[in-house]
Amino acid sequence: MQQRLDRWEARAEWPLASVTAVFLAAYSVEVLVQPQGLAARAVELATLVTWAVFTVDYVARLYLADDRKHWFRTHLVDLAIVVLPLLRPLRLLRLIVLIGVLQKAVGHAIRGKVILYTISGAILLVYVASLAVLQTERDAPDAHITNFGDAIWWAITTITTVGYGDMYPVTTTGRVIAALLMIGGISLVGSITATIASWIVQTVAVDDAASAAVTAAHINELRAEIASLREELRAPADNGSACDQQP
């Protein structure tokens, strides 16, 4: 079963990335353009279709897992994204799939990953939070965040923990989004720090291993030279003994 789950996840990666891009585009149009009539229905249809794909992916991975109870317990966020209406902005966390695709394009160099996490992760969090908080806040009484520029400014000051206080959410949902953005920012910084620390430890370990290998090679060379010298010293002695034994 685990192999089937791995194959499913590998095959679904690119399709999910494409669906996620469509979802982001539809959600952006919904929030920023606020379409009416046929355009609004088209956006809603695109959102529902992508939402259905995410649900199918969740159900398929749950079915293919070896230990379904353990998988269920360790993927509660995925369940929340699919099920809980209160956490609807969290569905954009599926955009992490896009980060995984970009990560593969960069390669396996750990430094490339750090750069990727820093840039794409920060941009993704700021953009998603801006859309979500703008949709929630702009029609609320006494709202401070009423346009996308304000939303971007609020998201940047929040994720960097600057928090000027000039703009803040006034709705419960907006405050939930703010809390999630703070947690996401802290997690992003922690992930980057841990990755850099891991790279340093790995680099030191590789250098130590290389030094140990060079030292071992030098010792083997010295042993070989000593053995060669011993053979050379024994050769005259053996010849002299042979000459003494001749009549």
What does this 3D model show about the protein?
The chain is mainly alpha-helical and 247 residues long. Helix 1 crosses helix 6 and helix 5 packs antiparallel against helix 6. It contains eight helices and no strands. Helix content is 81%, strand content 0%. One of its GO terms (molecular function) is voltage-gated potassium channel activity.
Q: What structural class should be given to the helix and strand makeup?
A: mainly alpha
Tell me, what's the shape?
Answer: elongated
Please count the helical segments.
8
How many domains? 2
Overall mean confidence score, pLDDT: 76
Topology as H/E string?
HHHHHHHH
User: What do we call the CATH topology of the largest domain?
Assistant: Helix Hairpins
Q: Strand-residue fraction?
A: under 5%
CATH class of the largest domain: Mainly Alpha
Quick take:
The chain is an all-alpha fold and 247 residues long.
Features:
elongated, Helix Hairpins, single chain, 8 helices, 81% helix
Structural topology:
Blueprint: H1 2-33, H2 38-64, H3 68-74, H4 76-83, H5 96-106, H6 110-137, H7 148-159, H8 172-245
Helix pairs in contact: 1-2, 1-5, 1-6, 5-6, 6-7, 6-8
